[in-house]
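Here is one chain, start to finish.
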Amino acid sequence: MEPFVRLTGVAAPIDRVNIDTDAIIPAVHLKRIERTGYGEFLFSSWRFNEDGSPKADFVLNQPSYAAANILVAGRNFGCGSSREHAPWALNDYGIRCVIAPSFADIFFNNCFQNGLLPVVLPEEQVQRIMALTTENPGLQLNVDLEGQRIWDENEELVLDFDVDPFRRYCLLNGLDDIGLTLQQEDKIAAFEAGRNR
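Its structure:
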């Protein structure tokens, strides 16, 4: 898993609540077993018309936000089914951080297992970021997991956030559950060797 330490990038506002995993990656696209290849289908029912042409009014289709790697959204982001494909699609598209007032529990956990940082901030702070990124298309934010701080390029906005220390450690070091287990490889090997005697 790719570590997340600090990210500087364009933030795209999606001012909607209850964005579910079927909107993030519609079920019709879940035909792969790899974690890659889903980015082109991210928000596909919102991004594209039935003929495959892009919908000009969707934020990620607008030139100023096309290269966004941070999303700012309403509460309960990632609700719905528990598909891990949702963080896979976000990551594959290039989104490494989602900022929202709240997240669905399973999606929230899946983010940390896939190198994606979900930042929980109070509603009024999320609305400030939403307004700033809407009024200034293409505005870049800095998200520093080490310092647990977010700020814009002009420092009009400087916000602190909290992340569980264990999850923070894992994300900073690029460790999912498998990576954590492999840190104990010597002890596991010694245990197995002792068992086989």
